[in-house]
Design brief:
This protein has six helices and no strands. By secondary structure, the chain is mainly alpha-helical.
């Protein structure tokens, strides 16, 4: 019976990794759409959302079934709880990709101008956080997960810098307000992707050590 239970845990983990791949691809596509202003890529992001939502429901149901039927304890219980939380964060990463694609589509109505914000770099950093958090999940590596927490400050700083730069641009050139506001919202979307990666890292630490580090300043395990 326990062998079958642990096979079910492995299957749950595999499903979550599929979910992670879909969410990460959506973010990569949304940023490529921003970089190239390619509305066809935006459509691919929109079309990916139902599949991500459907997989989120499947994973949640599988996790709840295991809780109900197997009544796991200790680290197995924490693993399933972490999967449910990570699943929700990955679905929200997909939502952020859709939000970015919406903004890119709106920007397509205006002339393409050089904005004082490095969206691709912010996207690269946020995506790296997601990949690193998921690697920590795959390996059950709490120390790797803790390194993700330290990266969040840099993403936050980039978003703050984007706010300052784009606000100043609007004051100097109000005719660029629509493009600047859309870029500002995209920057905010990426900052939230970083937040979701942080949440995933915190859940890995919870799974491995049973420590709740969801609030900054309480890193004791």
């Amino acid at each position: 019976m326990r062998i079958r239970f642990h096979q079910s845990l492995d299957e749950l983990k595999e499903k979550l990794l599929v979910m992670a791949g879909m969410a990460e691809q959506a973010i990569q596509r949304s940023i490529e759409a921003y970089r190239t202003r390619d509305l066809e890529i935006c459509e691919l992001v929109f079309k990916s959302e139902p599949a991500i939502n459907r997989l989120e429901r499947e994973i949640d149901q599988a996790a709840l079934d295991l809780l109900a039927m197997e009544q796991p304890m200790a680290i197995d219980l924490r693993f399933i709880i972490s999967v449910i939380r990570i699943n929700a964060d990955l679905e929200r990463v997909g939502d952020q990709a859709v939000n970015i694609a919406v903004r890119v589509r709106e920007m397509g109505a205006y002339s393409n101008v050089d904005l004082p914000v490095d969206i691709p770099r912010a996207a690269s950093l946020a995506s790296a956080m997601v990949r690193k958090a998921l690697q920590a999940f795959i390996e059950g590596d709490a120390e790797l997960a803790r390194s993700v927490l330290a990266m969040d400050d840099e993403v936050d700083a980039m978003n703050d810098a984007a706010f300052t730069a784009l606000s100043n641009l609007i004051k100097r050139q109000p005719e660029l307000t629509p493009q600047a506001l859309n870029a500002l919202i995209i920057s905010r979307n990426l900052e939230r992707v970083g937040d979701h990666a942080t949440n995933v890292a915190e859940d890995v630490i919870f799974w491995v050590h049973g420590a709740d580090v969801r609030h900054k300043g309480s890193f004791a395990s």
